[in-house]
Amino acid sequence: APDIGFAPAAGPGVAVALPDGTVQVRDVDTGDLRWNVRAEVTWPVRGLLVIGDVAILYPLSRRRPDPATPVAVDLGSGRVLWRAERSARLGPCAGALCDLAESGTRALDPRTGLAVWHEAGWHLAGTLDERHVVVTAGGPVDASAAAPAAVLDARTGRRVRELGPWRVVGTAAGAAVVQRLDSDGASLIARVDVVTGSRSVVGVWDG
């Protein structure tokens, strides 16, 4: 059977990409077809990411003499809006699109591919909801280590909340789940509310 790529879509919905470049988006509650379009691509599609009325299509393989790069496609017409650079690492960033290839985190306009904001030295650690993301300071390999962390508005890059030097271990709707290791080896897990900044202890484990 041919490879088929699946991805969540806002609405709520589920998106499907066929190898020939056909993209379909269906409502998960009713099964109704919201989008059905053949993208203007000449290479097999491996997967996709849907943001609003734009689908980011990923090529089946980059291991060719002239490797293809991801493209942004208008779901209404199938027209290619822009092509990503070969070094791009495109991924979901709450309700936005992020390129994680550069130093830090850079948000892109899904329809133009132009940078909306860039946080140098801060790396994506997780998505809280459709609007907010958590970033941590330091290199990408240190994103899960204890380091200064913050909550950003994914659409504007505005810093909504400073979390302090915690280790970000997870995210939940409207909250970040963080960990602190005390000098005696005890591990404290807390939930931080994005809006109020209040912390509630989830649990404490002795070292």
Features of the shown structure:
7-stranded antiparallel β-sheet, 4-stranded antiparallel β-sheet, 19 strands, 55% strand, single chain, 207 residues
Instruction: Tally the beta strands.
Output: 19
Report the major sheet: 7 strands, antiparallel
Strand order within the widest beta sheet: 13-14-15-16-17-18-19
Low-confidence stretches: none
The amount of beta strand, in percent, is over 45%
Compute the average pLDDT.
Answer: 81
Please trace the helix and strand order, writing H or E for each element: EEEEEEEEEEEEEEEEEEE
Task: Please describe what this structure looks like.
The protein has 207 residues and is mainly beta. Helices cover 0% and strands 55% of the residues. The protein is built from no helices and 19 strands. The strands form 4 sheets. The chain has a 7-stranded antiparallel sheet, with no helix packed on it. Strands 1-2-3-4 form a 4-stranded antiparallel sheet, with no helix packed on it. A hairpin with a 5-residue loop joins strand 15 and strand 16.
Structural topology:
Layout lengths: L4 E5 L3 E5 L4 E6 L5 E6 L6 E7 L2 E6 L11 E4 L5 E4 L6 E4 L2 E4 L5 E4 L6 E5 L2 E6 L4 E6 L9 E7 L5 E14 L2 E7 L5 E7 L5 E7 L2
Antiparallel strand pairs: 1-2, 2-3, 3-4, 5-6, 6-7, 7-8, 9-10, 10-11, 11-12, 13-14, 14-15, 15-16, 16-17, 17-18, 18-19
